[in-house]
Amino acid sequence: MTDRTVLVHRGVFAAVDGLGEISGTRGTAPDGLFARDARHLSRWRLRIDGAPLTRLAPGVLVPEGTRDRPPAFAVFRAQALGAPGLAEELRIANHGGEPLAVRVRYSAAADFADQFELRADERRYPKPEGGHGQRTRPDGVEFRYRRGDWLARTEVAAAPAPDAVTAGPDGAELDWTLTLPAHGSAVLALTVRPVPAGTPGPDGPIPVPVERVRAEAAAETAAFAEPPPAPPGADPDLARVCAKGLADLAGLRVPAPGPGGAARAVPGAGVPWFLTLFGRDSLLTSLFALPYRPALAAATLPALAAVQGRRHDPSRLEQPGRIVHEVRHGELAHFGQVPYARYYGSIDSTPLFLVLLHAYTEATGDTAPAAALQGAARAAVAWMFADGGLDEHGYLTYRPDPGGLVNQCWKDSDGAVCTADGRQAEGPIAVVEAQGYAFDALRRTAVLAADVWGDPGYADRLRAAAARLRAAVHRDFPMERHGGFPALALDGDRRQVDVLASNAGHLLFSGLLDTGAGRAVGRRLLEPDFFSGWGVRTLAAGQRPYHPLSYHRGSIWPHDNAVIVAGLARYGLAAEAARVARGLVGAAVRNGDRLPEVLGGHDRAAHPDPVPYPHSCSPQAWAAAAPLVLLAHERAGAD
C-alpha cells in the first residue's frame, strides 16, 4: 500500500499509509507522529485475529475473503489530528447473522528519533546515556525517552480499556477480545498524545472522540481559510487552488513566542522536514498572504524579533541584528549536535524582515508593529551594513559555513550557487536576489523612518544607500554574453557567477532594475529554456549544471515563480505574468489543487503532467501561499 495521508495541526503532524498504519520508515518520506522535531510514534499497526487487513476504500478495511466466502466483518477506521493528538476510531461491523468474536491487537512503538536522523543521507549521531522506557497504564501505555535534561513522552489511551497491555523494549501491544452482535458492531476509541520535551504537561483526559477532534480542527481551519473574494470572471481553478492553499496554511501554523513571551501562530515552513519557524520561509509566506491574512505578518514579525541576533557566535552564525534562519527544538539541536537550535545562516531573512514590516504597515495602516519593532528594525539595518557586508563589500554577502549551510540564500543546497561549468562559487558570495531585497528594505525602512519614527535624517541616509546599491548592481551584474541578463551572484573575487538562473527575476519583485532592463529580464524568463510550461526553472535548460530533478539546478519552485509573477506585473508584463500563473495553476490542478514545495523541470510538451520532485515537502507554506500572489495579480488586472 503506497498511498499516504499527512495530517497537520499546530506544529504536530502525522504521516500514515493507506491503511492508517505507521511502520517507522526513514529517508525521503518518513512516517510517524511528529512533534517538535521528534518522532513520537514509530509503529502503529492493527491486526484482527492475527492477520493484516485489506483496504476496500479509504478508511474501509476487510479481512481476506473470496467470492463464495465474503469477509465476515468490515472495519471502519477513522483518524483525525488535533489538540489532543492523533485520535482514532475503530468500528468493526459484523456482516453475519450470528454473534462473532474477534481478537483485536494494536502494536505501538515510539523511537523518538530526531528528524535529522531520519533523512535520506542516513547520518548517525551518538546519543550517550539516552534511554527508552515504557509504562503500562490501565487504559494503554506510556513511552518515554530521557537523555540528561531531555525528556519526551508519548501517551496511548483507549476506551474501552484493553483486556491486556504488554510492554517491552521494542514497543507495546494492546489486546482486546470483542464480541460483535449479529449484524451489529463494536467501537474502540484511541488517542496518541505526544508530550514533547520542553513543553508543559498534557491538558485534559484522553482518549478523545475522533469526531470531536475532527470538528475542532475543522472549525480552526474554516476560521482561517475562508476563501478571499474573487474578482468578476475569476478562474475557478485558481479559486480552488487558493482555498486549498489557505487550508494548508491553517494547518502549518506553529506556536512561536514574541518578545513578551506570548505564543503566536506563525507559518511553519513545511512537512515533513521544516515544521518550525524559518526566517525566510515565514517572511515570504506572510508577505504573499498579506492582502488576505495580515495576521500572519503581525505574528511573524515579533516572533522573529524575539530571536533576533544579539551577539557574535560563529558556531551558529549569530550576529547582532541578524534575523534567524531557523529555530529547532529537537534533541540533536538541544545538545548541540546540529547547529540549528537557533541558526542564523541566511543572507536574506534580515532584509525581508524589513520589507515585511513596511509592507504590513502600508497594507493595513497599522503603525503599532513598526513603532514597537523600531529597535529591531534599526538593528537589522545596522547588520546589513556591518556583518552583512554592505560597508565592506558594497553588497550583502555570505561566506560558506562548513558546519552548516554552504549557501545561505534561498537556493541553499550544496552546489546551488554555481558557475556555468558547474563549480560552486567561493565566498564572500553576493547573490543577486539578496541585493534586490536589500535595496527594497532600505527604501521601505526609509519610509518608516520618515513617517512613523520621525527621523528624516536617517531616512535620507537609507535612500542614499539604496541608490548606491542600485547603481552597483546595474554596473556589476549584467552578463554581456547573455544580453545583459544579471548573473546569479558575484564570487569573492567579484567575478560573475555566470549561470542563467531564476534569481534575477527577484530583482523585478524588488523594483531594483530600471524599466528597460527589468522588462528584458522578464521576457527572457519566458523563453523556452527557462519556462517549462508549468513554471520558470531555477536554471535555464541546456547549461552544463542543469538537471530537471536537481533541488536547485533545474527544478521549478512555486514560491520562486510567485515572486516572478509579482515582478512581471510590477514591470507591466501582464501577459507574461498571466502565462506563468496559468502554468502554476495547471500544475496544482493536476496535484489535487495543491502546489508542492518543488516540481521537476521537465518540459510540459514532453509529459502531460508535472513531474514530481522525489523529495518535495508537501504541504509547504510558501508554496501554499503562492496562489494568493496569483489571485492578487488577477484582481489587479480586473481592476
Automatic annotation (TrEMBL):
Instruction: Give the start-end ranges of region Disordered.
Output: 122-141
Query: Which residue windows are transmembrane per the record?
Result: none
Where the record annotates domain Putative glycogen debranching enzyme N-terminal, the positions are 7-190
GO biological process, alphabetically ordered:
carbohydrate metabolic process
Pfam family of this protein, just one? GDE_N_bis
Boundaries of each Mannosylglycerate hydrolase MGH1-like glycoside hydrolase domain copy?
A: 427-592
Under which name does UniProt file this protein? Glycogen debranching enzyme
Natural source organism: Murinocardiopsis flavida
Organismal lineage: Bacteria, Bacillati, Actinomycetota, Actinomycetes, Streptosporangiales
